[in-house]
Design a protein that fits this description.
single chain; 3 helices; mainly beta; two-stranded antiparallel ribbon
Length: 149
């Protein structure tokens, strides 16, 4: 038994905000994850862009921003980012060339992976998804992870 109940003064104690324990939201907001050899998006990303089949990625080397722009399959830089026929999901888009170039341009550490949340933006009537990697969550790559894919 712990013993007799002792009266305690609560003076000086401060409430710890619950959001301090929240990870970046992965279910309620669009997210983009970067590895040195691939980029992936969660299903919410696909849904907020109305399950479009093709996108074009645009990178800003100065702001560490990535735009996901819905395009038709005829766009010369179109990337098919979905998989499946009925229950669509977003596929991992593997490219060591892209990962290497992006990590170098943004001065990212190749021993780490990065995840950022996205938000819908528009320009000239076109709706896009913007991911800001300035405050991205990061985690260390597992040994051999790049070879496991």
């Amino acid at each position: 038994m712990a013993g007799a109940l002792e009266e305690l003064s609560l003076e000086g104690f401060q409430v710890v905000k619950s959001e301090m324990f929240l990870h970046l939201p992965r279910k309620g907001e669009p997210t983009c994850s970067l590895w040195p050899y691939r980029v992936s998006f969660n299903k919410i990303s696909l849904q907020v862009l109305n399950s479009c089949e093709y996108v074009r990625l645009e990178i800003n080397p100065n702001t560490k921003g990535m735009l996901v722009v819905p395009v038709s399959s005829k766009d010369k830089d179109a990337i098919r980012w979905i998989k499946g026929q009925k229950d669509y999901s977003v596929r991992n888009m593997e490219s060591k060339a892209f990962g290497s170039e992006l990590y170098k341009a943004w001065e990212l550490n190749p021993e780490f992976n990065y995840r950022a949340t996205g938000k819908l933006v528009s320009s000239k009537g076109k709706v896009m998804l913007l991911f800001d990697f300035n405050g991205a969550e990061l985690w260390k790559s597992k040994v051999g992870e790049a070879n496991d894919e």
